[in-house]
Hints:
alpha+beta; 35% helix; 139 residues; 4-stranded antiparallel sheet
Amino acid sequence: MMLYTIPKQHKKGSPPKPYSCPDLPETDWAYVAGIIDGEGCLGLWAGPRNKQSYPRIAVGNTNRNLTDWLQAMFGGCVGYQPRREKTNHKPLWEWKLSSEAAVYAILAKCVPYLLLKRDKALELMAHTEARGIQKKEGV
């Protein structure tokens, strides 16, 4: 198992929380990569209080079971977005993950299976590596 941390100073002086990916079979990582490829969004978002950007994975879906499963497996949060424009649209549930260490760890496992978003995943991983991610083997 690999443990990932980002060495950065928090305002309150607390150390960053380490993140370790769940131990999933390779078929499950391929499934997660398919979800990210088909339903997901990878990008750098600017923090609301500072100008520093951070990587984020977001997956939107009308089936809450999918977003709840992603949250249970990887953390993050699930938000609800009601559809107001047209009455025949279903509500949208969105899972978001913005912990740099978590995003890096998940993308590292999914990159071999990504087809459409592989280049963006590698770009986000390079951004995180430039910020100094620390990896610890066998934790």
